[in-house]
Design brief:
The structure is a homopentamer.
Chain A: H1 6-9, E1 29-35, E2 40-45, H2 48-54, E3 60-66, H3 71-80, H4 85-92, E4 99-103, E5 106-118, E6 124-135, E7 139-144, H5 152-159, H6 163-167, H7 169-205, H8 212-240, H9 250-312, H10 321-324, H11 328-350
Parallel strand pairs in A: 3-7
Antiparallel strand pairs in A: 1-2, 1-3, 4-5, 5-6, 6-7
Helix pairs in contact in A: 7-8, 7-9, 8-9, 9-11
Chain lengths: ~350, ~350, ~350, ~350, ~350
């Protein structure tokens, strides 16, 4: 997870609107979907002022704003809704942890969207995007850093005219959007789980083909994922305590919290497995070392006494009677063979070969 | 635990009925048991519509539906009971964690059934099956993925005419079904405990015969088991808070929660032991290495100086007076013997042999 | 801890009376002590029916039943007291975790008694015995698996006519019995603590005399002890909430809970020490390896160049002028001595010798 | 974190004013800022008595006192405000953990300010400074050990005439001051995060260039940072429960608590990564050892048998027929080449080269 | 911490007065301080009965009883105050964990006093002493095992006539006594922290000079200290809930609890550092091994092929044409030099030298 720059905001007035993310050149894009049970109009507008106007309609509106770097426009837009400056800061500050907070009649939900890609070496790479969902009496406004998000499924459902989402009002739409984000967490956890399973299978079969750095990277991604997913559970608690919450939406929030809990538990299970893999890996390193040392020990130990014997009879003393016997050489060779065989037998008994 | 595919459901409408398990070709089977204190009728029906009819009887009915892949039939069936779409999703989504939730007058309990088998190499293999228990005013409907379950004991008790189960109503039957599931967890934990004890005994006697991968696999199974067992405790809390809960069943739920707690504590104890075994194993690897190195060190260190001496008197200098003395050879051999014995003594004093 | 057989009870009707322990052939023994402030009668009876009769007396009775394998007699006895079938199951099922539960006017307390013995190699061996204390308006009934228990001290106090225990009624007697059990935990923890201290002293002085398996066994026993002791604290919470609890007994329960907490904390402290000892042990293994390798390295490294030199002048080239100089031999020896001394100095500077 | 001297205060009367920090010679400096929505006067005064006078104004005053070693002046000043002696002790005792406590109408907030610098070897060095914020009906008094603090940003905002801070009263100013402190924690965490990321990148590429001591130091700094940051969260809970808390400031405190939580979670994530790095490092040490041993094993094992063969034919027995055959030498060399090549092949098959 | 003998008390009647500490021969000493705002009388008495009399005075009395082994006198004394037998047991049983409990109008606080000394090898040694503080309407009675305690500072403050302690009554005096005990914990933690810092500095500079056993001992002392300090926090919770607590003393108890929390957090921080040091140590062992092996590998690997070559030309075959060429010897030496230099280059490229 890119550690967003605390230094960008440190020292600013609390509630001062500053964008802290990495996409500082993203253009601004505003997509509006206005719908009721029967009709749905989708358009892209260029002016946030215009967006404000369409909120006066009796239909439910979803205004999706991309490009958090356009701080001034967003701030002006938020002020028009009398959104608390702290909420604006949360929308723009990409390091805000997931939360849900009521500001008067509006509810702000902040969460990180997540995507998983694979780099050239097939290592998983996590990609987080800061997003906020502001839900009011007749509208939902969403804020995100760049194009591409977890919400196409929601758009598809709206367009398809699924009755529940078209008729259940902004609270349900906000829920559906957060649900789509949590769904993506589940997808990512599942994908990382598959990476972990593959790694584990390799470790169990041919441990030397797994590098500790791969395990480490997996561990780090799980750590990052957990850090982003964990506060979503808490935020749902806060949301459920909201007074204005539409009663029909409550069971869906309960369900979503179960879902988020499941994501966190799956992450924890994978982390536990990864810790186990590190033990496996270290053990396999020790194992390999043991094997290497055993080869050296057996060969060296078997030959060292023999080499000594050859040296012994290679000495140049004048008076070495054995050298001059007829079968001295064969006797020496016999001794060596016996020593060698004895050594082998001893090693075998010790379990070293 | 097969990581069921979050990707199958991600992006679907919440509450959209999709089966996410591995048994996508299982046929559908519906077994009905209708009973009261005096009579019990068991039959297998082919049509869920028919199942619906038999619920109007004054007897208690247990409808057991196998084959979650028949999504449409199940959805239609559930709609007829006005079961909340989220409950239907929970019934079909095999990655739902254990839970108990009230939907109007009905209570839905979700849990994973567990079985333990052993593969060709006698390694334990866990097998989970997603199951749901829906308890209403006069019926219990159960859903499971495939044939074979934890519930034969309940069927036997019903057939045997045990009074309590025949007369205590659907709540008690639902309890008895969950109790049977938890009983299977206890059986599996006990079996894994025996595997752990055997492994431990081997490790303590002949550590080199245990491979770290066996310990790792045991650890993973305990992790998976814990992940499935843990939420059952929470689900019992939710169940006990249910308004409609029949008072006679309450002490049984308390008892079941104690039982579930006991399962989780036993898992934790075994996990702790397994972590200890990893230490044992790593220590035994180090130990073996020490032994190997000691052999090499003793042999090499004893002979290296001797070999040097033989080399010394194997040099071809013209002027090497020792070579030409009468007892030079014997003196050299004497020196070597002394060096060897001195080395031995030194090693013994150092505790290396 | 003997993992008692979940498979014995799995599939039975909840509340079905089955004995799951290891003492399946123990005879049944019923000892009755009837007492008030002034008199105390002790006798052994053979018939539980008779036991029932003596409960009608105005005195307080303590009926101590040994031999849980006599399931039918015990079940009949319990039924006569209208003890809930689940309580009967808890009394007989040796894997029930410690708990206190009210059943109408009776309170059932379940706990494991513990004893420590030492095997032939002076390793500590834990021995658990399942016991239950049922306290009613004028009686206490205790159940245990076999002869020998933690309660002789209570019997002695009764016989000695200690006023408080003779006059404070069944609640106090039940407390005194549980207190005696917890006392034994404290004694066992203390004994294991002494084992740990001795092991630690040995590890600090002569680490190689401690085997990892001894540390492991200690760790396992502490794990088992904790698993048995931990739920006793919870059970005291439940007991203290009991409506029928005699107010004079309450401060004693508070005190007992402090006592149980102290036992658990002491176990945790010892576990922490044991984990530290494993580090000590692994470090000592590494240390020993380092020493071994150092010996090999020093000897081999010092002699290898010398041996090369002797080989050099042992070559049989015709034209090797050094061989024919007068002092070539002495010069060669000088070179060797210098090389040797230089090597020694280098090693000393590197801190290797 | 300098472990401040508990021994300085031990044995003193509770509430006895003693300065326990490291800056015992700091001069005293008192800076006063008096402001309302329209005017702002900044001055430095020399006498705390004078400071007291300016508190009678209708404006809000911020009195910033530097130099906690001037114990008497500070004590006298505090007494004039009827500040509880325990609060005075907290202000002066640099080892007080972060807290917020009400004393009558005044609120005292204690926290450590943090700064990060880098030493000559580019290792991060944390620097903590004890600070206290006393907020009353119309004033805020701050106490700090030495010049240089986290509060220049607040001063700038006051001077810039930002409306909210100029008009929201002392509670908001106190909040802004604590917020500035927490901002600095976030900056430090981010900087340590960058150090960790760089270290991690190096570890993954060229593990041998990272020394364990660097990882250890990073771990220690994160531990210290966590110890200082953790109680700030608790102190915010206490503050929010304060009766006198101005309602407009409450959402800011909520936000600040989220912020502090985020800091602690980021520290925990980095700590987790650092623990992973230690595994990486140890694994790389093992890896290097394996490589070293492999080189030795391959070379030694290949040559030892060859050297034995040369020794064999270097023996001086009279009767060694091979020596006198015509192609004996070439045959011997051939044998050696075959042995060598065979050894290489064997090593390759074993995966050792 | 001396594991006090649970076996001394096991089996005794609860509340039976037994002294379980190590100072079984300590004489009994009773020191009385009677004071009010104006006068203070200190005397030593020999008879506890006399002590009882002086409690009837209107002054506040502090009766300090040393020598818990005088069980009968203490029991009689306590009975005269109608102290609950369980409280008497807590006073005498040295393994009682810290607690505060009300007995009617009296409050009993139990805590371990701690002292740190250094043994001959400058290793820190902890020394705990069981102490109890009994606070009543007009008196404080303290019990301790032997001479020497944490309370001289309190005596000095009383004698010095510090107003608050002379006029605030027994509750405040009891607080001041516990505060003095906690102060000593802080002093000990600080001293252990300094030991840890020194150890850490040595480890970072010259890791081989630190022995794992020193780190282990430090870890154990921190574990023991934590076990004694942890329950003091809980006991303060109980004390604060006391109905009879004098309101002026309450803020002091809050402050003391912060203080105790700080002590526990400092212990935890040091424990974390110590765990880090163990990693450092193990890593340094591996490092040293790597170095040793590298020396051996480099020397052996460089010389082994050379020695082989010398052996080759030391063979005694008749037909070895190279031996008889004019420059064969120099050519052989050249080959060796090239091999040596090539080996060096290879090692340098591999980073092994």
């Amino acid at each position: 997870m890119a550690q967003h720059s605390a230094s960008d905001t440190a020292g600013l007035e609390p509630g001062a609107p500053v964008y802290t993310g990495d996409f500082k050149d993203a253009g601004m894009r505003v997509r509006v979907i206005e719908f009721d049970a029967h009709t749905l109009v989708e358009r892209e507008i260029s002016d946030l002022a215009e967006a404000r106007r369409c909120l006066q309609s009796t239909q439910t509106s979803w205004i999706d704003i991309t490009g958090l770097n356009n701080v001034e426009a967003i701030t002006a837009f938020c002020n028009a809704f009398q959104i608390h400056p702290l909420a604006v800061e949360d929308i723009l500050n990409t390091s805000t942890r997931a939360k849900a907070e009521e500001f008067g009649r509006n509810l702000l939900v902040v969460a990180q969207m997540v995507r998983l890609s694979f780099d050239a070496e097939e290592h998983p790479v996590l990609d987080f995007e800061h997003s906020s969902i502001l839900s009011g009496p007749s509208f939902v406004v969403t804020f995100q850093e760049r194009d591409g998000d977890s919400w196409d499924v929601v758009r598809r459902r709206l367009r398809a005219g699924i009755k529940r989402i078209r008729t259940s009002g902004p609270d349900y739409l906000a829920y559906a959007l957060l649900d789509a984000i949590v769904d993506d967490y589940a997808v990512v956890v599942e994908a990382l789980g598959k990476v972990a399973e593959k790694m584990e299978a390799t470790l169990l079969d041919t441990p030397r083909e797994v590098e500790i750095s791969e395990i480490y990277v997996l561990r780090r991604e799980l750590t990052e994922l957990r850090r982003a997913a964990w506060p979503i559970r808490d935020s749902l608690n806060a949301w459920r305590r909201s007074e204005h919450l539409d009663e029909h939406t409550r069971p869906f929030l309960n369900d979503l919290q179960d879902h988020a809990t499941q994501v966190v538990e799956a992450i924890d299970m994978h982390r536990d497995l990864v810790l186990g893999m590190i033990d496996l890996h270290l053990s396999s390193l020790s194992h390999k070392m043991n094997e290497t040392m055993q080869v050296l020990t057996v060969i060296a130990t078997l030959f060292i006494p023999l080499t000594f014997l050859t040296g012994l009879y290679g000495m140049n003393f004048d008076n070495m009677p054995e050298l001059h016997t007829k079968y001295g050489y064969y006797f020496a060779i016999g001794t060596m063979v016996l020593t060698f065989v004895g050594g082998l037998a001893w090693f075998r008994r010790r379990g070293l070969i």
